[in-house]
Inverse folding.
């Protein structure tokens, strides 16, 4: 069993890794981004001991020019120390409550456009739909239209957001404060209202 924890690793879901949040123990999991708080490029694969020990006596012929670079490793060690000292994973768990309540309010205010809000930790998806009952995507998945004009409008208002097709992704810094969540929710509220006006 392999988990791709490139986006979900290092606290994003309110536990160190998403597999822990869901009570699953993968054989391998990949990680990157959050391992250095994304300040220095570093990625890796964590391997179950029973599989890793297979290579104790056998070579594993793989590598990259900059594998295990001391600068990247130092950034990883420093980020993990900061996560522990600043209780960052616990803060991501607390962010879940803060985000869910604000995003649920927005869902009610912006129904039927905001068809679904889902997520864990500090990682939510907002699904924009043109028909609430059928959950028809506002722009079709892998179609030619995108939500870029909506994201551009949010950026002009002061909120950076990105997404894929009809799904907008909410993944704030794990250290964001309640005041910052309020500010972001208020901008999102205005942006959704503007989108609704443009659709009528
Ligand atoms: C979930 C997920 N997996 C894998 C990757 C690819 O990672 P890399 O660029 O380290 O190959 C990405 C990159 O954004 C990702 O978001």
């Amino acid at each position: 069993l392999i988990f791709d924890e490139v986006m979900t690793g290092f606290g994003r879901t309110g536990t160190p890794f998403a597999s822990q949040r869901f009570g699953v123990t993968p054989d391998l999991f990949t990680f990157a981004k959050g391992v250095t708080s994304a300040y220095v490029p570093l990625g890796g694969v964590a391997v179950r001991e029973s599989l890793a020990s297979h290579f104790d006596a056998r070579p594993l012929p793989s590598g990259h020019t900059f594998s295990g670079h001391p600068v990247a490793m130092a950034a990883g060690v420093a980020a993990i120390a900061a996560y522990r000292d600043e209780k960052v994973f616990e803060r991501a768990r607390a962010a879940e409550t803060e985000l869910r309540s604000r995003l649920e309010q927005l869902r009610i205010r912006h129904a039927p456009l905001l068809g679904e809000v889902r997520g864990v930790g500090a990682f939510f998806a907002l699904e924009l739909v043109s028909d609430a009952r059928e959950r028809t995507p506002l722009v079709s998945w892998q179609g030619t239209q995108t939500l870029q004009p909506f994201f551009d409008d949010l950026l002009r208002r002061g909120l950076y957001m990105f997404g894929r097709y009809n799904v907008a992704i909410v993944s704030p810094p794990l250290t964001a404060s309640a005041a910052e969540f309020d500010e972001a929710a208020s901008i999102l509220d205005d942006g959704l209202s503007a989108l609704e006006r443009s659709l009528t």
